[in-house]
């Protein structure tokens, strides 16, 4: 039977090996994004810099709320019709005409 001190004594090595993959992925992401050189690539350093800016200015709650509202409205269909409707009392000259010509 192993003692608790033996099991708990190895947590730094488990933490080190467990943190190795995420750190390697972040470094690879940063390197690849920098190598590509596109300004729209979200680099980890840019993300951290913007997070610090939002936290310092107090705009983080508003930014989170705005992102949630945008995500909620992203799946909804547009209410407006793509073709405007003609009012009932419109002048006959403005009535829609079918102009399909498949001949």
Report on this structure:
- The protein is mainly α.
- It is 58% helix and 0% strand.
- It has a domain at 41-65.
- The chain has helices at residues 4-8, 11-36, 44-57, 60-74.
- The relative contact order is 0.04.
Alpha-beta content class = mainly alpha
Shape: elongated
The major β-sheet equals: none
The share of residues in extended strands comes to: under 5%
Tell me the number of strands: 0
Distance between the termini: 89 Å
Low-pLDDT runs of 5+ residues are: none
Radius of gyration: 29 Å
Order of helices and strands: HHHH
Number of helices: 4
Q: Which tags fit this structure?
A:
103 residues; 4 helices; mainly alpha
In brief, what are we looking at here?
The chain has 103 residues and is mainly alpha-helical. 58% of the residues lie in helices and 0% in strands.
